[in-house]
Amino acid sequence: MADIKKCDVVILGTGPAGLQAAIHAARKKVTVLVLGQESKSSIFHHHVENYCCVFNTTGEDIIKTGRQQAATFGAAFLNEDVLSIAMDEGRFKITLESGTIIGAGAVVIATGTARKRLGVPGEKELLGRGVSYCVECDCNFYKGAEVAVTGNGSAAASGALSMLAYARTVHLVCETLDISPALAAEVRQSAVVLHENSKVKEIIGKDEVAGVVMNDGSRLMVQGVFIELGARGVMELAGLLGVALDDEMKHIQTNKKMETSVPGLYAAGDITGPPWQVAKAVGEGCVAGLEAAGYAKKTAKPSVV
Questions:
Q1: What domain count does the chain have?
Q2: Whether residues 188 and 238 fall in one domain
Q3: How crowded is residue 190: how many other Cβ atoms within 10 Å of its Cβ?
Q4: Which of 227, 247, 275 represents a domain boundary (last residue)?
Q5: 167 and 243 in contact (C-beta within 8 Å)?
Q6: DSSP label at 196?
Q7: Residues whose CB falls within 8 Å of the CB of residue 57, separated by 6 or more in sequence, listed in order
Q8: pLDDT at residue 259 above 90?
Q9: CATH code at position 185
Q10: Claim to verify: residue 216 and residue 276 sit in the same structural domain
């Protein structure tokens, strides 16, 4: 694949919404780049039996077929997670976990909203009292404190690095660093205290977090625990741009054109709210892809992928 630095439309997410957006945007003859890892799509490991005209198939088959369709129409794919999105002179500036920076005229967010939980004692009880699922949202509460970030993916690694600007000590607890070599090197060379081959087995504290118990029985006496499992999600990415969310701060608000409150930024699929169905995701992806392509043509200079 060519060295990709600029394109017209970038789509975040390789589920049904993202792939349908890619298909329709690419058919509008704009350059399209799809970011994300298909095996991390929520539908990938599920069985599908209620999607019109497709019966008794697997999510994996749907994803692989959709990817082939999008590629046939000219969409390019990069199996990387996104660390941040910003605006730069009217274009979107997207930083990947490898350090690569992509410029785009329009962006479609179709990353889903599933917030994975550890499922350990103390997690639910201390939520909001030291337990958080969003570094960007709650980092300011832990200035000068000692914190733990747990997770194997880019969200945990980048979150731990971000917390260095606030916390006195940052621990990163993970079984293995399942991230790009560049991001892994950055973590290892930083002041983050890395605990590999480790798990958080319990979060302790009465009225607020007092520490975590590790799988080997040892304890980290921390005041905050950030649970960041997987790739960057809706709260982090949308929050960086100031996108309007719903009253519960769980989903991105859109209009019938799938436009968000930020010009040139569109959203589709589970990220816009229920029902959690392939049919809804595909329909919204269609609209978002067409609208994003139209926006890119009007406002951005065409570029070659």
A1: 2
A2: no
A3: 15
A4: 227
A5: no
A6: T
A7: 47, 48, 49
A8: yes
A9: 3.50.50.60
A10: no
At 39-67, the pLDDT tens digits run: 767 677 777 878 898 887 888 899 999 99
The yes-or-no verdict on residue 69 having pLDDT over 50 is: yes
Max CA pair span of the chain: 59
Q: Is 131 exposed, middle or buried (0-12, 13-18, 19+ CB in 10 A)?
A: buried
Range of the domain at 152: 131-227
Task: Name the residue type at position 55.
Answer: F
Cα separation of the two ends of the chain: 9
- What's the whole-model pTM score? 0.71
Q: CA 34, CA 40: separation in Å to the nearest integer?
A: 14
**Bridge partners, 41 (sequence order):** none
DSSP, residue by residue, 80-148: --EEEEEEETTEEEEEETTS-EEEEEEEEE-----------TTTTTTBTTTEES-HHHHGGGGTT-EEE
pLDDT tens by residue, 262-271? 999 999 998 9
Q: What is the pLDDT of residues 269-305, one digit of tens each?
A: 989 988 878 999 999 999 999 999 999 999 865 444 4
> Are residue 79 and residue 101 in the same domain, yes or no?
yes
